[in-house]
Amino acid sequence: MLCGHMDGAQSDETVIELQDVSYGSPNGQDVLAGLHLEVRRGETLILLGRSGSGKTTTLKLVNRLLTPARGQVLVEGKPVGEKQSDIVRLRRGMGYVIQEVGLFPHFTVERNIALVPRLEGWPEDKIRRRTQELLQLVGLDAGLTARYPHQLSGGQRQRVGVARALAADPAILLMDEPFGALDPLTRDELQREFLSLQQRLRKTVLFVTHDLNEALRLGSRIALLEAGKLVTVLAPHDFVRSTDALATAYVKAFGAGLKSAGNGDAL
Amino acid sequence: MNWLQFLAQNRAEILELTLEHLWLVGISTVIAALVGIPLGVMIARWPSFNKPVLAAANIVQTIPSLALFGFLLPVPWLGDRAERLAILALTLYALLPLIRNTYTGIRGVDPAVVEAGRAMGLTERQLLWQVQLPLASSVILSGLRVAVVISVGLATIAAAIGAGGLGELIFRGLAMVNNQLILAGAIPAALLALLADFGLGWLEGRLRPQ
Description:
The complex is a heterodimer of chains A (267) and B (210).
Chain A: E1 14-24, E2 30-40, E3 44-48, H1 55-62, E4 70-75, E5 78-79, H2 84-92, E6 94-98, H3 109-113, H4 115-119, H5 124-137, H6 154-166, E7 172-176, H7 184-201, E8 204-209, H8 212-218, E9 221-226, E10 229-234, H9 236-239, H10 245-266
Parallel strand pairs in A: 3-8, 3-9, 6-7, 7-8
Antiparallel strand pairs in A: 1-2, 1-4, 4-5, 9-10
Chain B: H1 3-9, H2 11-45, H3 50-62, H4 65-72, H5 82-107, H6 111-119, H7 124-155, H8 167-176, H9 179-207
Helix pairs in contact in B: 2-5, 2-7, 2-9, 3-5, 5-7, 6-7, 7-9, 8-9
């Protein structure tokens, strides 16, 4: 099944809005130009595009790892403040998962997961309960809490990364090719778990990938980016039928693998 | 009279000078760490300070130690007591490895980890104390180790300006053409250096991130 996401999971309420946002790299080149994008509550919006198309930049503009050159980013209807304390507050309300995971290598699994709750000053017993709950949620053995990231497999690390992002129960999740570095079987497993998690938690997710299969499988809508510009935003079932040149090219490129394998069988 | 008998006879003085030596090295290393590590953090944060700070520390390093002791001698307050002078000079020499290693250590922390920390909502201060410094600690410690080993050796020269330490025995031995006396200063100094090197090396290994 290609379009795994259930219909009607999201409302039309806008949670994240990018208004005419541009961003230039330090060497003066425009990475992103005049981007308009809305992410609705409870949906998984996929940012799809090739390397350098501005997907990751878009994500980092949302949690202010990057500051837009022009335009503004609204979160829950409010523009993101310039004060350091506002930005820290904003970030603690957003889970962030990246491909290299970014777990702290000198923290145990437990400390990694409990990072934001500790920063927020939760009482220890609440943190302990939450950590156990999260481990279960992402399908990790409770016995792993005392391990360090280097003692885990890639899939386990990525699960810890997801648990850490969910720890303080943020309404928004930002995910930057979170499953990109995993082997196909583990990736499939994690994608499946992501879907079932999302069914329960209904987070507003902004998800970066260059993998069309992943986009079709996980996305409520797919925003296609090319060279710093938004090409189109389509639901998965519209994407595969789109007549847009770039969308067609994507579908063709990803279909080619299946087809050539099919031809091989026929021989 | 063999050398061991000589040592036994003079053990009180050797011990006292060893402690003096340790004091000179210890206090100067602590001061150098208190100055050098923050400087290293600063230049890692604001790279425009990088060149001038490292250049200054480098220049200090190139001044021959005996000359530095001599230069500082006429400085008021400092010159009053040879010990102050020696501590200042040793501190200056210990700065470069500490600044450089702190800088290298912090810059060497995986950018993905730092960015993840920032994205999770750590403030810059929390990022420094909870992520960057702990992950740079083994590199900083190896700078400390170099600084201590250099200091133990240099501190023997401090005796030339009357600051005490094991150098006393060496200079006295040189003046009296007495090899036993020279060795009574040189061997404990070498042992101190080896011990410090070994101890800090062990600690460094324990702190190295996996």
